[in-house]
Structures are given as C-alpha cells and as structure tokens.
Design a protein that fits this description.
Oligomer: single chain
Number of domains: 4
Radius of gyration: 25 Å
Largest sheet: 2 strands, antiparallel
Distance between the termini: 30 Å
Number of strands: 4
Strand order of the largest sheet: 1-2
Amino acid sequence: MSIFVPNKVYLRGILLHYFIKKKSAAEAHRILVQTYGDNALSDTTCRDWFRRFKNNDFQLEDKERSGAPKKFQDKELEQLLDEDPSQTLPELGKILQVAESTVLKRLKGIRAITRRRPPEGHWVPYELKPRDVERRFGTCELLLQQQKRKGFLRKTKYPWLEAGDRYRLQLMRLSRALKEKRPLYAQRHDKVILLHDNARPHVAKPVKTYLKTLKWEVLPHPLYSPDIAPSDFHLFRSMAHGLADRRFHSYEEAQKWIDSWIASKDMSFFRRGIHVLPERWEKVVSSDGQYFKQNVCFPYILNTSFYFVKKQRELIQGPNNKSENN
C-alpha cells in the first residue's frame, strides 16, 4: 500500500487535468475519493475549483489574503543563512517580505541564535562559552595533527555509525554484524573509528566500558559542535530535503521511508561527509574555536524531524511497548 499522502495543490492539479479532459466536478470528485479516500477534496471544494477554471483562473496555489501575513518555507530562510549568516533581522525580513517578528520566530524554530562580534555578527546554533570555544579549538587542532600524521580518515572503509535509543545495544549489534560481514574486522586487522557527540547515552559508563572491550578508536568531539559532526552537516542536511512537506501516519511508515532513503545512497555519499572533516576542523581552528560562517544553522531541521518520529512512535505503541532483541 502506498504511503503517499497528496497535498492540496497536488489534488488541485488533478482537478485541472480532469477539467481539461471535459469531466464534470462530480466525476472528478468521485475519482479522487476512489483513489485517495479520506485525503480527497470535498465535493464542494471540487465544484468551487471548477468554477475558477471556467473563469480562466488556473492558479493552484492559495492566493494571499489582504492583510494576512506572508508565509514562507523554513528552507528559504535556511538558504539565506547558508549564503550569508551575517544578515540581520531587517535584511532577512525585507528579502522574505515578512515582519522581523516572523523571521525571529522561525529562527527560534530552527534553533538559530545570534552572536554579535565586531564588526559583524551571524546566526549560530548555540551561544558558546569561553570553555566551549577552547575545547572546540583544542579538539580540532588535535584531530588535524592526527590526520596529517596518519591520514586515518582516508583509510576508513565503513565510517558511518549512527546513534539513537538503546545505544549500547546498537553498538553490540553493529559489532556482531561487522564480525559476520567483515572478516578482517573479526581477525582484528581492521580498526573501527567512532565519531559521536557527547549526548548522555554516548558517554554513559556502560557504553564507555563496552567501547573499551571493542578496542574501537573513539575520536574526541567538543560540545555544541554540529558543524563538525557529519551526521548533522551532511546526512541530516541531505535527508531534510527529502522530508520537506512529507507526512507520516505511523512509526512504521517513517521507518520504511528512512530505510529506503539510506539504501538509495551509495558509499561515495557517506565518504564525502567524512572526508570534508579536515577542512571543517581547519575552519574551527582558523576561527579560534568559534563557529565559522558557513553552514552553521541548517543541521537542526532533522533534529526536530527525528523527535517527531520518536513522539509518533510513543503515541502509536507506547514508549516501552516495542522491544529490541539482542
């Protein structure tokens, strides 16, 4: 069964198709109901659109109402910030043709805040404290030295490891899968390099102890640094485009879509996210540990999306109703 959920503009396009085909509004409505069920437009709405078509009004998008605030997509705002994160609220509002308060509300929605540093400021995901800046600088400088000395990133064969709920269990399952599918790993000739952030599940004592038994190399990662986490700046950023305007009605639908999306990516896609790390470390060092100006706001879209998926799962089957076997 298809999980495609049509939006209203898509359905209006179908109505226009049947109008051109000389179908009546009633016939078009009947076909929509047969095909899309509860997602179909109402009979009254279909008749209203047929009247518009007869009056040579073929604009399928909603017209702006007089006095109503202009709407814009978050991706428009994110694109502007990607191009120039130093733009001010008045400048962003002028480009998007909305009030400054509207821009500020959406900036909070994508978890972007402003940091002012003479002679200019730019939008960033966190307000870094001096110790955070120092850690970012020190960690990136250390990783750059390690990369220049060993070139360890170029040697990775399967570098992407994802974190989530039941993190230690996931690591156990991953290690077992590597032993089954990678003989060199089982013989300890291949080494796993793990890069994860400092979320509580990742730094819990049982996880640290288990990682020591695996003898994996765990790279240091400073707090508040999504700009040097490939899952944020590369994986989630790309996935966000596919998730735009998509609705899921169950956890299973969301899981199926994510599995399919990941399967559609070849190894080169994941390698790109890893191999750009030295360049990003250099930018952090060049910025003295501060956020660098490019690509600092966008990664937070998917954090919200995955939170939605998790909440959907809890609503559908309860937070502890679905167990994972070892």
